[in-house]
Amino acid sequence: MRKQKITILGATGSIGVSALQVIEQHSDLFEIFALTVHTQKEKLLTLCLKYQPKFVVISDELSADWLKNQLDMNSKTEVLTGPLALSEVASDSEVDIVISAIVGAAGAIPTFAAAKTGKKILLANKETLVLAGKLFYQIVKESGSLVLPVDSEHNAIFQVLPSQAEHIKNIILTASGGPFLQKPIEQLEEVTVKEALNHPNWEMGAKISIDSATMMNKALEVIEASWLFNLPANKIDVVIHPESIVHSMVRLIDESVLAQLGVADMKIPIEYCLAYPNRIKSGAKELDFECMSELHFMKVDKKRFPTLNLAYQVLEKGLDSGCILNAANEVAVDLFLKNKIKFTDIYALVVDALNYFELEQYNDLETLLYKDNVVRQKTLELATKNFN
Ligand code: NAD
Ligand code: MG
User: Fold this and answer.
1) For ligand 1, mutation pick of 208, 211, 329, 372 (most atoms within 8 Å of CB)
2) Closest Cα to atom 4 of ligand 1
3) How many domains does the chain fold into?
4) Nearest Cα to 128, choosing from 273, 10, 265?
């Protein structure tokens, strides 16, 4: 059988690295076509030498020049840069599979390019769906692209989803609660960046780690689930499950509950998507039931995690509210990571941005990305005005 050719958008990130680890175990099935990174030129050089992709993309032109100089004249790899390059390697006619693992709305344009050209898309970049889920699925329907969820909760649901949609009563996304599940609420204001980045169960990029600490990650995931599984907000629940062993559940109309379990390792959902509808080894550890004495489940405390409600508001209001939520959150998280605002200001700033903007209709991605830019600028202004 011909090997499947893969483009990884965001190859040096937490998901990108896990994806490469799965692919490496199955070099008889897959080969790397293109790898993209934002700024990490040394890491990209190492990847070029190891995987010899046909293309690599790096955002910054100087880094691209550096990389070209480092690569041997006989290197098979062509170095690309510039605004169109990500979309080119995501839509190239040779590519079978695109792993969408850039963080933030920056991942939307190449993920749309993959969708337009009918690729099999392994979607980790949930922000694409929060920003533009409706448009994305219009394109997916037209092109016949296959979108498979990498996010562990959505992957779990996808693995146990019944074939008949009318059998679903609701889906239940599990949330670990992040590093501050037990911290007294009045102390949240003073938590440090280092504490917020220290997720108890998963090693992830900085942005999603902070999103997990505020529970914004689960809010984004509720919106993501709504688009992926075509479900209304009232059929999507969230429960805290601190051990991250049950990755999510589907409750059926007869009160059966189907769940997917496994160790907290993104190689499992990535493997499932890569091989789908087949299964192959992921390289993850076995789940050891004899060492697992207790699993806990509890209600989300809305006072501790007010962010979660924002997802339900966005799903109710529609229009471009997802774009505003996402852009304001990206700015707020970045400001927190740079020690410019407090941890609790993240939520407050996002709410200020959501209150500031009128919701608008949109018919294309360009309109949404324009709004995304406007929201980012305004959120920065609001931060200076309200949180200094
Ligand atoms: P990360 O920060 O570790 O990696 C991000 C990657 O994107 C890097 O390769 C970086 O070079 C690239 N990148 C960043 N900004 C870019 C830009 N402006 N243009 C082009 N490339 C850019 O992030 P991650 O934790 O791997 O998460 C990636 C995506 O997957 C996010 O959308 C996240 O929500 C989702 N996700 C991650 C996990 C996880 O376990 N890490 C789980 C579920 C979903
Ligand atoms: Mg998740």
Assistant:
1) 208
2) 13
3) 1
4) 10
Six-digit token pair at 176? 């670990």
How many angstroms separate the alpha carbon of residue 151 from the centre of ligand 2? 5
Quick one: which of 88, 109, 114, 85 has its CA closest to 99? 114
* Cα–Cα distance measured from residue 113 to residue 115, given in angstroms and rounded to the nearest whole number: 5
- Indicate whether 345 belongs to any domain: no
Mean pLDDT of all residues in 77-103: 97
Atom number of ligand 1 nearest to Cα 202: 40
Helix (H) or strand (E) holding 265: none
From the CA of 126, the nearest ligand is 1
Determine the distance from the C-alpha atom of residue 63 to the mean position of all C-alpha atoms in its chain, rounded to a whole number: 26
What are 173-192's pLDDT values in tens digits? Answer: 999 999 999 999 999 999 99
- Round the average pLDDT of the chain to a whole number and report it: 97
Domain with 97 in it: what CATH number? 3.40.50.720
Measure the CA–CA gap between 224 and 242, rounded to whole angstroms: 21
